[in-house]
């Protein structure tokens, strides 16, 4: 089939490359000409494990090309996947659908051939219905075009495997033909047994925001338990392990720490509350505001504990920060808890020396005043305190005894509960963590 993928960021670039990899002819489209130039040469302009291989081979095969031209896209596609950003609006918790609307307004009048427009971006319930009316208004008379929604669940860091072998596919469709078209697009996945849920567009749109709301709730739940553990002397990691053995609860997403961030969870739960308010059911999901507040509190708690460990203030203190990205195995720093903490302690006068394996260029672009150090030991040189804020594997492999030789003090705050506390303490470090007791 001939597919276009409009919006070639963290989601779209992966989708385009993987669709070409399973045999489709794919045209990637973006308004960012630098990104399109890089992708067209087979170069991934961001960090995503495994993507370089898939992109390189599909561009080389000729099945994957890139353009900035919507005319070319309209001429080419049987199916147009819309993968543009839907960030939070600057002035409200609601989603900014400006990019989605711009794609529809640009594409629809150019359509001449029968096609299906399939949204993958995360959008408020009701968007497909609204866009369907818009497409009908704008597409040339007699053009056979429909809109469907097929939300995306990939995780950055695992995006390629999540696209090629998703846990499930959800198709919000308005006709049998749209259903058949999507089944054809995803035929190799369906043959491999991936569950395919065909439903109405509103349900499909809701599945995505409901899934993210549930995940955010699980994280904030265990972080709330961490706060209670701190007040009682309990250990949240043992609590999570014991809870996780209950198969009704499960262990995943019960890691207490600095909380969630990134370009999805925070803005998606806010957009959900805003949309629910519009629909008159705001009170049904008002608990999500508390989930968001618990999440924000972990950043403040981390700064408070760090300040305490630094001796009551950051002025004149050298603080090594390990981690800038919102999660490991990504260079994404959107709404990153690690970067929020680094910025807060810098504002309070700390001399911040920050290391991240992949996120330093992106972090420098938004926080140019921090000191970026491309080597862990150098970042920790002379440090009064080390903050472990993103759980990269590389940080778990640090030898605490060797690091102690370069820091001024042996003090570390593990805000991700990911380090081997006993190992660090046996090397003479004072290690504190969120929701775990510190031995005297
Ligand atoms: P992104 O910012 O990395 O990519 C968006 C791309 O769209 C950018 O390259 C941008 O230049 C392009 N764009 C913006 N306006 C455009 C236009 N008018 N025409 C063509 N291109 C345009 O964002 P992302 O992380 O890829 O997220 C995209 C959508 O996917 C969002 O709705 C997000 O919530 C959803 N999503 C993201 C992930 C993820 O892990 N990143 C997972 C699931 C769903």
TrEMBL record:
Residues involved in NAD(+) binding: 30, 35, 86, 122, 156, 267, 334
Coiled coil: none
Residues reported in the UniProt entry to bind substrate: 153-156, 208, 253-257, 261, 327
GO biological process: polysaccharide biosynthetic process; UDP-glucuronate biosynthetic process
InterPro entries in the record: 6-PGluconate_DH-like_C_sf (IPR008927), NAD(P)-bd_dom_sf (IPR036291), UDP-Glc/GDP-Man (IPR017476), UDP-Glc/GDP-Man_DH_C (IPR014027), UDP-Glc/GDP-Man_DH_C_sf (IPR036220), UDP-Glc/GDP-Man_DH_dimer (IPR014026), UDP-Glc/GDP-Man_DH_N (IPR001732), UDPglc_DH_bac (IPR028357)
UniProt entry keywords in alphabetical sequence: NAD, Oxidoreductase
The protein's annotated pathway: Nucleotide-sugar biosynthesis; UDP-alpha-D-glucuronate biosynthesis; UDP-alpha-D-glucuronate from UDP-alpha-D-glucose: step 1/1
Enzyme category, top tier: oxidoreductase
EC number assigned by the record: 1.1.1.22
Catalysed transformations (reactions): UDP-alpha-D-glucose + 2 NAD(+) + H2O = UDP-alpha-D-glucuronate + 2 NADH + 3 H(+)
GO molecular function: NAD binding; UDP-glucose 6-dehydrogenase activity
Pfam family, one: UDPG_MGDP_dh_N
UDP-glucose/GDP-mannose dehydrogenase C-terminal domain location: 320-421
Gene3D superfamilies documented for this protein: Cytochrome c1, transmembrane anchor, C-terminal, NAD(P)-binding Rossmann-like Domain
Catalytic residues (positions): 264
Annotated NCBIfam families: NDP-sugDHase
Family classification: Belongs to the UDP-glucose/GDP-mannose dehydrogenase family.
PANTHER family: UDP-GLUCOSE 6-DEHYDROGENASE TUAD
Name used for this protein in its record: UDP-glucose 6-dehydrogenase
């Amino acid at each position: 089939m001939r597919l276009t993928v409009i919006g070639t960021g963290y989601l779209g670039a992966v989708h385009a490359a993987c669709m070409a990899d399973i045999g489709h002819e794919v045209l990637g489209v973006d308004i960012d000409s630098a990104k399109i130039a890089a992708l067209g040469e087979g170069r991934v302009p961001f960090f995503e494990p495994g993507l370089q291989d898939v992109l390189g081979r599909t561009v080389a095969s000729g099945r994957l090309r890139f353009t900035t031209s919507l005319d070319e896209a309209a001429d080419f596609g049987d199916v147009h996947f819309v993968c543009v950003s839907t960030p939070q609006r600057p002035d409200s918790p609601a989603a900014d659908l400006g990019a989605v609307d711009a794609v529809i307004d640009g594409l629809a009048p150019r359509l001449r051939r029968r096609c299906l427009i399939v949204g993958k971006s995360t959008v408020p319930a009701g968007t497909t219905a609204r866009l369907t009316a818009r497409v009908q208004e704008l597409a040339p008379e007699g053009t056979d075009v429909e809109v469907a929604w097929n939300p995306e669940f990939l995780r950055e860091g695992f995006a390629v495997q999540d696209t090629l072998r998703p846990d499930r596919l959800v198709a919000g469709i308005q006709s049998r033909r749209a259903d058949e078209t999507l089944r054809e697009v995803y035929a190799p996945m369906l043959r491999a047994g991936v569950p395919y849920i065909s439903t109405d567009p509103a349900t499909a749109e809701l599945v995505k925001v409901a899934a993210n709301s549930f995940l955010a709730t699980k994280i904030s739940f265990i972080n709330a338990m961490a706060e209670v553990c701190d007040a009682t002397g309990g250990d949240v990691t043992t609590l999570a392990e014991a809870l996780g053995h209950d198969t009704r609860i499960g262990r995943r997403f019960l890691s207490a720490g600095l909380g969630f961030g990134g370009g999805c969870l925070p803005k998606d739960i806010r957009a959900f509350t805003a949309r629910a308010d519009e629909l008159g059911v705001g009170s049904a999901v008002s608990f999500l505001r508390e989930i968001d507040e618990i999440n924000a509190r972990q950043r403040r708690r981390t700064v408070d504990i760090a300040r305490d460990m630094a001796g009551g203030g950051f002025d004149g203190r050298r603080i090594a920060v390990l981690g800038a990205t919102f999660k490991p195995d990504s260079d994404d720093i959107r709404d990153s808890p690690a970067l929020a903490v680094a910025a807060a302690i810098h504002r309070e006068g700390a001399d911040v020396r920050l290391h991240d394996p992949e996120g330093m260029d992106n972090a420098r672009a938004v926080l140019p005043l921090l000191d970026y150090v491309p080597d862990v030991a150098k970042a920790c040189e002379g440090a009064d305190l080390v903050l472990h804020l993103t759980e990269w594997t590389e940080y778990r492999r640090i030898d605490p005894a060797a690091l102690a030789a370069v820091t001024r003090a042996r003090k570390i705050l593990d805000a991700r509960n990911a380090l081997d506390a006993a190992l660090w303490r046996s090397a003479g470090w004072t290690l504190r963590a969120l929701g775990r007791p510190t031995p005297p």
